[in-house]
Design brief:
The chain is mostly helical. It is 46% helix and 2% strand. It contains 40 helices and six strands. It has a two-stranded antiparallel ribbon. A two-stranded antiparallel sheet has the order 3-4. A two-stranded antiparallel ribbon has the order 5-6. The longest helix has 23 residues. The chain is elongated, with a radius of gyration of 42 Å.
Amino acid sequence: MTGWTDERIPIGVLPAPGEALDSWLERYAQRLRINTLDFVDYLGLSHVSARKMGTLGKMVRRLTEDERDLLQRRTGIGSAQLTAMTLEPYDGSLVRIDPASRRLRCPPAWRHYGNTSRYCPACLEEEPARWQLHWRLGWAFACTRHDLLLLDQCPQCGNAPPVATRGRHRVLPRPETCRSWIIQRGQDVRCDFPLAQAPAVRLPKDGAVLEAQHAVDNSVITDHHGAAARQRAGELSFLGRRALRGVHTQLELAPPVVREVLVECGGTTPQVAATHEVHDTHNIAVGTALAVIATDLEHPACDDLFAWLHRGHGQPIGVPRDHPTSDLGNWRPAGPRVTSRILKASDGQLTLKARLRYRTATPDAAAPSLCEEEVSRRAAKLPGMLWPSWMLRLLPAKAAHQPRIGGIRRACANLMLIPGSTIGHREATRLMGNSHFRSQQEALLAFVDADHIASTLAHFAHVIDVHTVPIDYARRRALFADESVELSLDESRHREICRSFGSRQFTPVHQERARWEVRRLLLGAEPYRGNHPPAWAHRFAYRLHPDLRAFFADQAGVILAAHGINEPVWWEPPDDWLDGIVLPVAPLGITTDSLAALLAPGPAARDVAKDLSLTMHQLRLVLESRGLSAPKPPNPRGPGHPTPRKGDLAPDRLRHLYADQGMQQKDIAELAGCSAGIVRYSLKEAGIPLRPRRAAGELARSVDRTWLRTEYHVKGRTAADIGRELNTGGNSITDLLDAWGIPRHPLRGHLPPPRVYSNPFADLPVELSPAMCRISIRQNSLTALRSAVLVPGYPTRRSAALTLGIPRTTFNAHLRLVEDGAGFAVFNHRKRPVRVTTRGQFLIEEAKQLIALLDEARAARPKR
């Protein structure tokens, strides 16, 4: 208190700790032996609705500057202490006060209106007439000093007892009595019931209600303006209300802890009003106590109680669904932690895509919130095929068959765009530059454990979002994914490197394979869209010479530099990004040096996989992630050091097969399980003379050209198959095919280049965008663009097709042609009416302009 001044009242009364402003003014008036309203008038506050105690009721909510200054001058109480006796410190968090009228608005949690206050009889008996401010808060329902349930009403009159005296009656009420006015024998009289003697429910010290009050004091009231306190208040109030409704509608299904809480609060069921919820002490105590138990993961009844609160909503169904629960939106006010538990509880009822979208298999389950830009940013961080080191963490230890590992890697890369986003599988595959094969994807992923996929891929997506990836894979896909654009390599350097270690891998076929490997390095994925690579790719990678590997990486770097890209050629995420995921197989932790030493003798891939207890596809992923390969095995020893032959290569057996039966060397090689070169060496070692070569031109004279065309071109037989029938090699047959002009089959594993059609806009004086360039060289591109520009505004694609008068399947094919050629989603087919995406808007506008110019040019041409 400050020093005495001329304006200060000669008699001072100090506020009690935690006391409300109106309680202090009431005690002050009692000390001066006057009525509270007379005391307010004496202080100079009678200018505002003194007749109805309007001033005092508003002051206990918030003091104006004039009121605070006047009370400070007249009573000597400091400004901060006066503010602490009002509800102003709790404004915006536990209460809401209108800034102009100082009326109490609907609070964010439990409601508690008016100038009345709850009370504890034992507290009033110890500190007569000292009413605590926190009793006015909706979260106060128990006295932790005396272990009593707070009271809302006077047990005699049934009214909420006012803290301060109401009315201008000169008879002063006794302290600690109910100051309510009641009608008795036709006249108004005071109730005067001694509130300190009011019966209250005694709560057990280790019971759920007192535990809940302590939890609320610590987590909600203490730091009520903090974000954590607001979130906790939302959880408890939402679950508390749901618990109260459950008590009245499905109490027979409630777990035993619900009845235990009811017994603590007096053994009666809380009352419920007909039109709205009741927020008395009994209701709030029961609801809050149950909410605290339902959110305490260490409480033994937590799961059962939470399941009871969620009962009747989102019932499980037999067929997995794409949405977790029908009333998920109703649970959002409870906060992210409660929503996360609801989502995780529905994990077993969802499809794989829904589990990924809502992350229900992870501790961080939540509704999708990523925008289109954030999904595109994640796609730019991912190659078209999941990195091999990450794919190893998804595969089972052993498999009954060889899976289509390429397809699984592409499917996983597509699915990594689903967690936290609202895009579908078609949009995901387009962003990743992969083909749309949803049915194949589901069949592939059936090979892998769904629970492991759902949790691990969601974790992968989170890791990608929070880390920086040094490669922009979206840019690389836009530059290098088109296989019709040939990559230029230093062929002379390639030939020189191959000759340096005695290899002839510089033929046109090998040059195509070299470009395939360089494109794979640039894309971070194999340059195809199928489920498995060409047949030669696995052996090519396993026997790749280190000098060639370095050459391919150098060529990829040169290509990147030519495009002005300063990025590493090849990159994989470091192991510490995935510290939380355990390797499924122990040998995968083998060091790179140990693995290189194991590969040094040039063993077969199957032998290496057996030594490491891995499957073949796991070994391929390990070698790709480490950048290793096995050198070519040494050549067989020369004639000076003959190798003893067994089985079909034993001299007697070999003589019978070659000389007596007249079998070809390659057929003997198939029979013996070796190469034709080994058979040739075995013949020389056994001293078996080789048959003379066929005379020049003899094969051409003995084969009919029409028969060869029919067998090879029409029936589709291979040159090797025809050669076996004619007792010659496949090369001889291919020489005849070339000599007679019979079209050759495309190389196995190499797709023919895409067919290019004439560009309808080639003669227009307009520069086409890259997307339009790709679309315009496709067949029927103009017709497809005319259909695409008419889509926006129609409710559905079907209605647009009906308006144009074309079949719906044809119309859908037109849209697919435009979107596949553009390489991104042009339309959002989920919206009604159909909407154009942000990127698609520019393409549609460009198409409209080009079509208009083309029509004008055609109209201006002279008619013949």
